[in-house]
Amino acid sequence: MKYYAIVLALLSCGSLCVAQPSQQISEDFKPSTLNQPGQEYPQVNSQGYARFKILAPQADSVRVSLGLRGRGGTKLSKGEDGSWMGTTAGPLDEGFHYYHIIVDGGKFNDPGALNFYGSVRWESGIEVPAHDQDFYALKDVPHGNVQQILFPSKSTHTSRRAFVYTPPGYDKNQSTRYPVLYLQHGWGEDETAWTNQGRANLIMDNMIAEGKIKPFIIVMTYGMTNEIKFGGLRNFDITPFQTVLVDELIPYVDANFRTIADQSHRAMAGLSMGGMETRTITINKPEFFSHYALMSGGVYKPEDIKDKSKVKLIFLSCGSKERPDGVKSATATLKEAGFNAVSYISEGTAHEFQTWRRSLYELAPLLFKN
Amino acid sequence: MKYYAIVLALLSCGSLCVAQPSQQISEDFKPSTLNQPGQEYPQVNSQGYARFKILAPQADSVRVSLGLRGRGGTKLSKGEDGSWMGTTAGPLDEGFHYYHIIVDGGKFNDPGALNFYGSVRWESGIEVPAHDQDFYALKDVPHGNVQQILFPSKSTHTSRRAFVYTPPGYDKNQSTRYPVLYLQHGWGEDETAWTNQGRANLIMDNMIAEGKIKPFIIVMTYGMTNEIKFGGLRNFDITPFQTVLVDELIPYVDANFRTIADQSHRAMAGLSMGGMETRTITINKPEFFSHYALMSGGVYKPEDIKDKSKVKLIFLSCGSKERPDGVKSATATLKEAGFNAVSYISEGTAHEFQTWRRSLYELAPLLFKN
User: Fold this and answer.
1) What is the 8-class DSSP label of residue B149?
2) A159-186: per-residue pLDDT in tens?
3) Which of B46, B72, B175, B200 is most enclosed, with most CB atoms within 10 A?
4) In Å, how far is A202's CA from the nearest CA of chain B?
5) Looking at the structure, do residues A117 and A145 belong to the same domain, yes or no?
6) pTM of the entire structure?
């Protein structure tokens, strides 16, 4: 046990770690809520262990990428019926995890699971029930819509896709206008991530139903205009995406939706790479946004911001398994410099979507208050 | 060659057939337009041959389900770099095809291709360029939106999902109200099929831009409330879905969108199983729909319809590789009986989405004329 503990401390592995490898496994496995219709596997138990079953009768080796990092994920064993089964060596963190399977050296998705765009590919996804899953559950409350729009982009010579969340009642309250949050995904993801993995629409529906927030619109578009391969981030140039967002998407949204089309009613937030984009664009274009949020996506320093009076909120967050000290100290520094800065640390989660679901839940009530 | 011809005539295999197995293959292969971002394979050439490449270094056998039916699809051969490659034995039909790969006896998706929901699973998809692909191309024209709605369904104790296409200008023309087409997918598909595979929104955008049709709304929801497994269709009971559609979805759409909420401005259409559903529901509930369309999904007989005066249009279609004679003779019989019946046969296509894309293109100008 001691050896394990040291190894684990050295790895910044988040959900891929095994917390208590020797604990008794409860045999109360149920199909993951993100399985394809009618599929029994993958399964998750009440402790957060995941169990996989893959049919590949003539394969020599089947592994799952989830599990203990550095040990090749979870190796499955072949059963007499030609299917391969295995259970993670320990519980996974609460929330959503990407994964894939490796069959005889080839990378494939689990035929039992739904797919989610991450790592520049559609990956399998699995959901570990969380103690706080109620805030992103599908409930019997009025639901907003998620609209796919195709907006003209001269700078990239195409029609680009965005998803627009309009709150419940948007179509009925024809005289109401709404603030807008521009919300960006992370590296390797796309404009589907915040609703599919993040459940942003359900988080909003539930908070609006409970009267916790005033309704606003969320716009999600693809934040990678140039490089989609590994390594592209090293030489990342924000200009093409900034042009799409500020010169093309925002005017389109303001012309086609009932927005309050001014700086004080426009926010930008992003996770991971989307945080990096948010930071750069809000610094470059302070006349467009008043509320900024970086989720596991870096920090602001007071000197980054030229005109403090234009910034209504800076929200910084990450998981407790990331670098919470950096987020906390940056927030303290911003507060000392007179900014309305708020930090949030998601307990027990890493650089994954549970951190960002919770971050949106914490951020939303703070937006457009003033 | 003669032996092939006989075998092919006996199989009702559509796109899975090989038209001219011995023709010279042009080496002008390009990535399929439905590949995942940055993926070079699968590829399609100008003749409609498809070429696949799958990395699985330690596998013993890799096959692709597309190819000559009854011969195990297309067998791939292992190259020195550990990847498996192969080309279909002949050209595929124009348009969209579902497929999967078989690796050492296990069924997986092609990591290079996007996934589409069909056969009660997310399958790989490949697009063979068609001579008439312009009508469903993404063009620089005003685009309508595709909205995901979650509507309350008491009968199934949940919020159910539908997609609603609203035409360009819907949000700007606040005084305009629109007719509605309820459009159903086929067996094993879901409410994503008509936009993802069918490109219904782009077909509409293009026709509206060219002035070929007057704008209308399209509503697409999941048509399988009970059985999702093979065999379920044998004992299919329309009642649960009819309740969802007529008692729950239609009132929700009429309350939340600017529809013309009467029988004469409401149409129902469906492909394959969705045609079967359309036929049954329009016969059961003639007070709701005035325009009926069955695409590769059966026919009406004059005696099916109690009150002829309520029916403004009956549209019947299928691919030339299905049973065009049945569609044509049923249409003739309906015409003789005094119905406004129209048939359409998609040349060179089978029970696949190219037939249904074209069917929608032919149907749309006929809707809501009177």
Assistant:
1) E
2) 999 999 999 999 888 899 999 999 999 9
3) B200
4) 10
5) no
6) 0.91
